[in-house]
Amino acid sequence: MTPRVSKKKGLRRELLVVASVLVLLVGGGIAAYPAALHKVAIRQVGQVCPDNAYDSYTETSTGAGSFTLCLMLNVEEGECLSGLGSPDTLARVDCAGAEVEATVLKLVTGTADETACAEGSTPVVYPQPPTTYCLGKPAP
To answer: Which of 2, 3, 8, 113 is the most exposed place for a label (fewest CB within 10 A)?
Structure first.
């Protein structure tokens, strides 16, 4: 059965995050739906992610207890983003477009270190799994 996707941006993003959650729960590993802007980094028992860098999705159940999925960016070097202020407005955009707020200048896996980014870029660091994104101004 194919899920219906609403034309409204907020609902579409929510559906993509749910698709990531289903992959995690069914497959038993950390995975992401390729079009999703976030992927599951950690499944945390309780309601708090270990670091403020993560966005989160909390599931509460009376029988099985609650858990939180700590979500990290799911972007590659060279991709351009807009709506950086909120996970609800975050979007991949055409790098030639006027709405570009940042470009992913560098992606470093295996390390969570702000110093991996060049001066002038903005580091986004996730401790688990260790990942550092370096965001910068789009090229003129």
So the answer is: 2
